[in-house]
Design a protein that fits this description.
The complex is a heterodimer of chains A (95) and B (108).
Chain A: E1 11-14, E2 33-44, H1 46-50, E3 57-66, H2 67-70, E4 81-87, E5 91-93
Antiparallel strand pairs in A: 1-2, 1-5, 2-3, 3-4
Chain B: H1 27-41, H2 48-56, H3 60-65, H4 68-82, H5 88-107
Classes of the chains: A mainly beta (95), B mainly alpha (108).
Chain lengths: 95, 108
Amino acid sequence: MNTPRFSTGQRVRIADRTPPVHHRVPSYAKGQVGVIERVCGMHGEPEKFIRGNGMPAQRLYRVKIPQTDLWDSYDGTERDDLEIEIFEHWLEPAE
Amino acid sequence: MSEPWGPHDVGGQDGGPIDVSDHGTAHWEWQIDAMVRLALKKGLITDFAELRDGIERLTPDDYENSTYYERWASALAYALVERGVVSEQSLVEKAEAIRVRQQSEAAT
């Protein structure tokens, strides 16, 4: 299919929105900035499916977010990351 | 942190102690599991994502007070009614018939 919009190492922001259907972005990750850890290929995407249009494959990425950005009370090291898989339409380039 | 979407969206919140005891699996739970897999195989539902959607539409009270397979059962009923495979009326009538039968069995 089309070429990936983002590449490994690129900084991205996860959209902060709440579509009223099953979606795979937990609220704690919404609005966060991370780095593309890898491009995971094309996978069935449930949001579109629920609207009755089949389950079209969408580009999926693994995004790396510092734990200290996610949790105010995080007491691990600053090198700890969360890696979470996010579909392309949730991502925008970030500074 | 954005507003949670539904009662399941609890990542990062304090969930309290976790009950790790073996609950076993009741016969009706295997039956629900079988019905879901049959519905998938027959194309009545297309993916587990459809069940997830139904589970996430439960009210917070229903979500909290339902067991794993009770949530599956609710979501399967929701999906099958939405797709017109069964009517809500027929489900309500069947549930009522079962209730009446159980009451008469309990009375004897």
